[in-house]
Amino acid sequence: MAKIIECVPNFSEGQNEAVINGLVSVAKSVGGVTLLDHSSDASHNRSVFTLVGDEEGIQEVAFQLVKYASENIDMTKHHGEHPRMGATDVVPFIPIKDSSVEECIEISKKVAKRINDELNIPIFLYEDSASVPGRKNLARVRKGQFEGMPEKLLEEEWAPDFGERKIHPTAGITAVGARMPLVAFNVNLDTDDITIANKIAKIIRASGGGFKYAKGIGVMLEDRNIAQVSMNMVNFEGTPLYRTFETIRFEAKRYGVNIIGSEIIGLTPAKALIDCAEYYLQVEDFDYGKQVLENHLLG
């Protein structure tokens, strides 16, 4: 493949293995597409898939996955820690090789229109595809979640970009857009007090006056009985992972709480982790382009 485009759809199902396996089968069924990774979290009740492919294949697989999710995930019965508004919550397209954000914006609009035309699921365009500045931030788009969305859609400024002012009765509403790569980065705390995670997340995220390229919420991992600061790092070079990690460590000490681990959801650019290694090892004058062996081998 000369041109490579990534798609990272998020589905509101992380517990039903039959549905998750069905999504995997659909992801593997389209030519010109490779499923690189998929992960599911029972507490979040959410699955994240990472696919790459050519322009035609990535559009088809995105649509087929949304279709399968709409037929097999009932949002009226969904409960989980992660905010969500649809069976397929979000479908981002990301330029990887010989492609551009502008091309991904056009792809997102084509897929969004087809989803609405054929599945009758309303669509918000978000991030770089946003029709107005207020829809760039996914958190603002998703505010109200599935339960509050019928009322939200009646507000003057919240008409869907595609579709009528009403949600699909079981599949809800979906956000589709284009963006640059982000890192889904979560930090686990040795406390069962969700209010502590919420307070720290507010300090971390840009909307709370924190780091410009960080989004964060506090969630409770019921299966482990611990609180978590769950983050999306939308520009890992502008705000590196170690910076939020160390800030969380510092703020947690205020409450007598420690970090007990962290996790990356889905795939991440290698540089995001190498930047952390450079920081913690205090490597001087490190040149990522020249000193990483794999960069030379992979070209």
CATH superfamily of the largest domain: Formiminotransferase, N-terminal subdomain
Largest sheet: 7 strands, mixed
Q: Give the end-to-end Cα distance, rounded to a whole number of Å.
A: 15 Å
What would you call the shape?
Answer: globular
Whole-number total of structural domains: 2
EC number: 2.1.2.5
Organism: Vagococcus fluvialis
Domain Formiminotransferase C-terminal subdomain: 181-296
InterPro entries: Formiminotransferase_C (IPR013802), Formiminotransferase_C_sf (IPR037070), Formiminotransferase_cat (IPR004227), Formiminotransferase_N (IPR012886), Formiminotransferase_N_sf (IPR037064), FormiminoTrfase_cat_dom_sf (IPR022384), FTCD (IPR051623)
Provide a brief overview of the structure.
With 299 residues, the protein is α+β, with helices and mostly antiparallel strands.
Report what the structure shows.
The longest helix has 19 residues, at about 100-120. The radius of gyration is 19 Å and the shape is globular. The protein has two domains: about 5-180, Formiminotransferase-cyclodeaminase, Chain B, domain 1; about 185-295, Formiminotransferase, C-terminal subdomain (Alpha-Beta Plaits, 2-Layer Sandwich), CATH 3.30.70.670. A hairpin with a 4-residue loop joins strand 3 and strand 4 (about 45-55). The protein has about 300 residues and is α+β, with helices and mostly antiparallel strands. The protein contains ten helices and eleven strands. It has helices at about 15-25, 55-70, 100-120, 140, 145-150, 195-205, 240-255, 270-280, 290, 295-299; strands at about 5, 10, 35-40, 45-55, 90-95, 125, 175-180, 185-190, 215-220, 225-235, 260-265. Strands 1, 2, 3, 4, 5, 6 and 7 form a seven-stranded mixed β-sheet that branches. The chain has a four-stranded antiparallel β-sheet with strand order 9-10-8-11.
